[in-house]
Write a structure and sequence with these properties.
- By secondary structure, the chain is α/β, with parallel strands linked by helices.
- It has helices spanning 3-9, 20-29, 80-87, 95-102, 125-128, 146-155, 179-195, and strands at residues 38-45, 57-61, 72-75, 91-93, 110-113, 157-161, 167-174, 206-213, 219-221.
- It has two domains: 8-66 and 157-221, Ribulose 1,5 Bisphosphate Carboxylase/Oxygenase, CATH 3.30.190; 72-154, Ribosomal protein L1/L10, domain II (Rossmann fold, 3-Layer(aba) Sandwich).
- Helix content is 28%, strand content 21%.
- The strands form three sheets. The chain has a four-stranded antiparallel β-sheet with strand order 7-1-8-9. The protein has a three-stranded parallel β-sheet with strand order 4-3-5, with helices on both faces.
- Helix 3 (80-87) links the parallel strand 3 and strand 4 (91-93).
- The chain is globular.
Length: 227
Amino acid sequence: MGKRFEAALKELDRARLYSLDEAAALVKKTATAKFDESIELHVRLGIDPRQSDQKIRGTVPLPHGTGASRRVAVITKGEKVKEAQAAGADVVGHAELIEEIEKGKFDFDVLVASPDVMKDLTKLAKVLGPRGLMPNPKSGTVTPDIAKAVKELKAGRVEFKNDDFGIVHLAVGKKSFAPEQIAANAKTVLTSLLRMKPSAAKGIYMRSITLSSTMGPGVKVAVSDKF
């Protein structure tokens, strides 16, 4: 354990469950690395991730964004090309963009597609899938409303899903954010997760919540049925 991390631990009562506002302030205080660390939210859910009817996946617009700019590419055609460009998409195209991706050019962080071109993207599944870039209706990246999707993604809409252990991991800001902004973003995600509780999930649904920075210790947050 490094001296910096050890000093950060002394700021915490490791046996205590903090309120979300307290945790946001503490996680910012203990983020002492020299770069602008990401602030991460980790939520352990009482679901069986092996069951398809209990898997959690969705999107949520963070009120204060993630603090990171993302390049949004759009594959579409016709009038929707102009809509995507007007909405602020960084890259827009159809056949030529598909060809570039086939050649291994990925000059974007998120890829959005209109439903009418999805048949043309099937050949890209093996290329985009492993990178988590394949457009998907569940993540809101396959949609007829291209302009809305681009604006939301640029403003800070993020995608989340549980891992193999039933845990959702999501960046909810940066060290440079005010504690109030970190707490507001985290609250938005937690509220969304509560609304998505699968009817098949039994017992305690939200089992633990932790806020942490990239290089800092985790701060345990008191679980509530209302945030």
